[in-house]
Specification:
The complex is a heterodimer of chains A (150) and B (766). Chain A is α+β, with helices and mostly antiparallel strands. Chain A has 5 helices and 5 strands; from the N terminus they run ββαβββαααα. In chain A, strand 3 and strand 4 form a beta hairpin. Helices cover 28% and strands 24% of the residues of chain B. In chain B, 61% of the residues are buried. Classes of the chains: A alpha+beta (150), B alpha+beta (766).
């Protein structure tokens, strides 16, 4: 069936199969920044923004995105670049597999709660797993990013 | 040092954050055949018959392969140098399946749904065999996992498959029994460590196509591209020159991607279909059908004199390698060789035991590689001994531990699968690490415990650790530096960046020696057609071994530049000065840019390019002291790590922030293993923890404060004084946390993880 979404600011129509997940729709159409870590809504790697809210695209039916806005990291390039500078400063980037999804989750936090406390940041991002960093350097980078003036 | 020992942002950090094409699956051809693997539902069974007719007849199915399609060529997936210290006990596909999740057949179809449907259509008639599911009764079990005649060891590793023994090893220095008899105090305790899952975020992934030269080109999320190429060639009888393996960015490895996983079936399908194809493991397959950490039982005996002099260590180990013997011997030996030398002043030391086959998911390489298991046993036993001696555990360690300028006879005796290499500790700042760690955790005020009301108690505990820096005389690395017009360089290395940022730090090493900045060094790594040989990212080898190769190449490049500048300026080399940008001599100068343009466009035209190699003659250990502050809830047994302080001697940190990242990431994995990560298997051999909901890795909310510092240290054999930093961080948390729990509530956890249930039960039983 055909669905239309506002993808990174532009209307896009996709022909999707019954039961197709948003992750597959996006990835099959060349949005390689959206990646699969698991299939059970438990790692956060496939996070995209649906109407501005972070969702695990591995578990969102593509038809649910019909008529809504979908944002991948390609849609927040400047903000992701800013975050990457802080990641570099703190040595918070290792394998990088979780980074685009993390950038989206952090961006969404900045939109909704720009003055988030350290506790609120950790709680907001608890579903975004990282096996490399030990989190502490990421946390410092994210705090510095949130403090940066838009 | 201007570039080395300085914070420098990673080369690929921005591109990865922006989600650019980077990882293996990003490079799969658009219309790749999708591979799915039929996996065994039984822990141990013989395939009486397998019927693939219906699967093959399904429209969209292009290839179905079973054991009947392969000659019986045994190999090991371990991903080690050749000949491997792991037994050749695996076939591409076999008529016997040895664990739930073992490979039965592979299907390639035009899409995932068709491939999955085809799996359902394959009919397998299994003859069920009695599985071996308890590693403590595996040896001499009536059920033999590997009776097949073709399998073999490559050199003596104690391989005895008729007894279910994949490897065994014994060594003794002095006379342990006699020394123990003469000791004032002897303690004895048996420890158990569990299987741990690597849980890297990127699942195992590979894809293939044939290029215009009709060569098989494979992208793989591997730590060992040259080993993948060699093992595919050997097992599938493809000429090695027809295979190219490219490792793009890898989404974490931790040892889990050292071995061959999907590449074998992928290449087999590609050879038959000649079509692009890809295989991406599901998360369940990563948990069930790749491999995890070797579970171990370690029986420890320690003997000491009343004054706190440690006299003897006896360490008898049983290790569970699961269905196949990948890394069986070498992980086992590291349990001794990178742990026992910590206490180098003992009179006698003995180490030995067996590595047994069971019908479990195979075990394999995992950060720490035996040392984390051995460290838990030894450093827990040392605290038990200190209790018996009524001695402060820090004072005991300061008295007995390895010091700079000393050695241990173990280094010469025990290597990884072979004899070892004698070496002195050129750099060992353990005393500083211990003293500074005590300050960071506030040991003086917090040891042994601080009660917080009736229910909660805080305690501190510590452990010391060592690791290695590559496998001496085996791990080989090389690096090529090429000067380009415009005066910048290409650095190509076989070294394998799997997220530890080795491209970045190797670029820093080259930039430092060439007195330039990392932006002038374009780093390319891990393409078997384009980059020079390197055994890969394992055994904590990259900074030390590959780093030394890069440094040698940079020195050679500098010599070549001086030669060419001398010719261009018509001045002897010893009258020239170079600052990375310009050569200056009396009255004359030429910039590197002008020199390079002259060499490529104008005069004395030639390509300036150098290749250098390095093989370590030693494996200088990094050292660490780790200190845990935990809070234990007496009512529930729950333990939280409030603070974890580490002080590491890894020599010079090439890049202090990436080095910190290695330590902190490893510490968290160690905390996970200490407290809750646990690969659980049902009594019938079924994996119970096949997703991130049932197998919990640490989240942001589980992590207390990490205090991470480095000792000032310089390893004279390392590049700019560096040793390794990749694995050492994972070693101390199990013992330090168990010691902290014991100090807090008096409960000694001897089998990991230290779950609330175990602590609660032990508190009730007291």
């Amino acid at each position: 069936m055909k669905i239309t979404m506002i993808l990174n600011g532009n209307p896009k129509t996709f022909d999707v199969a019954c039961g197709e997940m948003l992750l597959d729709t996006l990835r099959n159409h060349g949005l390689l920044s959206v990646r699969r870590g698991c299939e059970s809504t438990s790692c956060g790697i496939c996070t995209v923004l649906l109407d501005g809210k972070p969702v695990p695209s591995c578990s969102v039916l593509s038809v649910r995105a019909d008529g809504r806005t979908v944002t991948t990291v390609e849609g927040i390039r400047e903000e992701a670049e800013k975050l990457s500078r802080h990641f570099g400063e703190e040595g918070a980037d290792q394998c990088g597999f979780c980074n685009p999804s993390l950038a989206l989750a952090v961006y969404a936090l900045k939109q909704t709660n720009p003055k988030a406390t350290p506790q609120e940041i950790e709680t907001w991002l608890v579903g975004n797993l990282c096996r490399c960093s030990g989190y502490q350097s990421q946390h410092a980078a994210i705090q510095a990013y949130l403090k940066e003036k838009s | 040092m201007k570039i080395v020992h300085q914070k420098w942002p990673s080369l690929d950090g921005k591109g990865l954050m922006l989600g650019r094409q980077a990882y293996t699956d990003d490079f799969a051809e658009k219309d790749s055949l999708i591979l799915k693997v039929l996996r065994s539902p039984h822990p141990f069974a013989r395939i009486r018959a397998i019927d693939v007719k219906a699967a093959k007849a399904l429209p969209g199915v292009e290839c179905v392969l079973t054991h009947e399609d392969f000659p019986r060529i045994p190999f090991t997936r371990a991903g080690q140098g050749y000949p491997e210290p792991s037994p050749h006990d695996k076939f591409v596909l076999d008529s016997v399946v040895r664990y739930i999740g073992d490979e039965v057949a592979v299907v390639a179809a035009i899409d995932e749904a068709t491939a999955k449907h085809a799996l359902d259509l394959i009919k397998v008639d299994y003859e069920l065999l009695e599985p071996v599911l308890d590693f403590e009764t595996a040896k001499d079990h009536l059920s033999v996992l590997h009776p097949e005649p073709e399998i073999h060891e490559m050199f003596p590793i104690g391989f005895d498959p008729k007894k279910n023994v994949a490897a065994s090893y014994h060594m003794e220095i002095g006379d342990v029994e006699a020394t123990l008899k003469a000791c004032d105090v002897v303690i004895e305790k048996t420890f158990y460590t569990q299987a741990q899952s690597h849980s890297m975020m990127e699942p195992h992934s590979c894809n293939a196509r044939f290029d215009v030269y009709d060569r098989l080109v494979i992208y793989s999320s591997t730590q060992t591209p040259v080993h993948v190429r060699r093992i595919l060639s050997q097992a599938l009888q493809i000429p090695i020159s027809r295979i190219r393996v490219i490792k793009p960015r890898v989404g974490g490895g931790f040892g889990g991607k050292q071995a061959i996983h999907g590449e074998m079936l992928l290449a087999a399908v590609a050879m038959r279909t000649k079509k692009p194809c890809k295989l991406v493991y599901t998360r369940k397959e990563v948990f069930e059908s790749s491999y995890s950490r070797h579970p171990m039982r370690m029986a420890m005996r320690l003997g000491a004199m009343k004054d706190g002099t440690l006299k003897a260590i006896d360490c008898q180990v049983l290790s569970d390698t699961g269905a196949y013997g990948e890394h069986a011997l070498t992980v086992f030996m590291v349990t001794g060789s990178k742990v026992l030398p910590l206490y180098n002043k003992v009179e006698s030391v003995r180490f030995g035991g067996d590595v047994v086959y069971t019908n479990h998911t195979p075990s394999g390489a995992f950060r720490g590689y035996g040392a984390i298991q051995g460290n838990f046993a030894l450093e827990s036993a040392v605290d038990i001994l200190c209790e018996a001696l009524q001695m402060d555990p820090v004072a005991f360690r300061m008295k007995n531990m390895m010091r700079e300028g000393e050695t241990s006879p173990i280094f010469a005796i025990m290597g990884e699968g072979t004899e070892g290499t004698a070496m002195m500790m050129n750099s060992c700042k353990l005393p500083y690490c211990v003293e500074r760690g005590m300050e960071l955790i506030d040991w003086k005020n917090k040891y042994p415990r601080v009660p917080l009301g009736a229910e909660k108690v805080r305690g501190v505990g510590m452990a010391i650790a060592m690791q290695g820096s590559g496998i001496p005389l085996i791990d080989m690395a090389s690096a090529t530096l090429k000067l380009n017009d415009g005066g910048f360089y290409n650095l190509t290395v076989g070294a394998t960046d799997i997220g530890q940022k080795s491209d970045t730090i190797l670029g820093q090493i080259a930039a430092e020696e060439l007195q330039t900045t990392p932006d002038k060094i374009v780093v390319t790594s891990s393409d078997t057609d384009l980059t020079p040989f390197d055994t890969g990212a394992y055994a904590s080898s990259t900074t030390y071994v590959s780093g030394n190769a890069v440094l040698k190449a940079a020195k050679a490049m500098k010599r070549a530049l001086f030669r060419e500048a001398s010719a261009a300026l018509d001045l002897p080399e010893d009258q020239l000065r170079f600052d990375g940008v310009c050569f200056r001599g009396p009255g004359k100068e030429i910039t590197l840019e002008a020199l390079s343009n002259r060499l490529y466009y104008n005069a004395d035209q030639k390509q300036i390019s150098v290749t250098e190699s390095y093989v370590g003659h030693q494996s200088p250990p990094p050292f660490m002291a780790g200190f845990a502050e935990v809070e234990v809830d007496r009512k529930t047994g729950e333990t939280r790590v409030l603070k974890y302080a580490t002080v590491t001697d890894c020599g010079t940190t090439i890049n202090p922030v990436t080095a910190r990242g290695q330590i902190e990431g490893a510490v968290i994995q160690g905390i996970g293993m200490a407290l809750y990560e646990d690969v659980l298997v049902s009594p019938t051999g079924k994996l119970l923890t096949g997703d991130f909901l049932s197998y919990r890795i640490p989240t942001r909310l589980d992590v207390g404060e990490l205090l991470t510092e480095f000792a000032e240290s310089y390893e004279e054999t390392g590049p700019f004084g560096a040793k390794s930093v990749a694995e050492i961080g994972i070693d101390t948390p199990p013992a330090a946390i168990a010691n902290a729990i014991a100090n807090a509530v008096g409960v000694r956890i001897t089998d990991l993880p230290a779950s609330p249930e175990k602590i609660w039960k032990a508190l009730k039983e007291r």
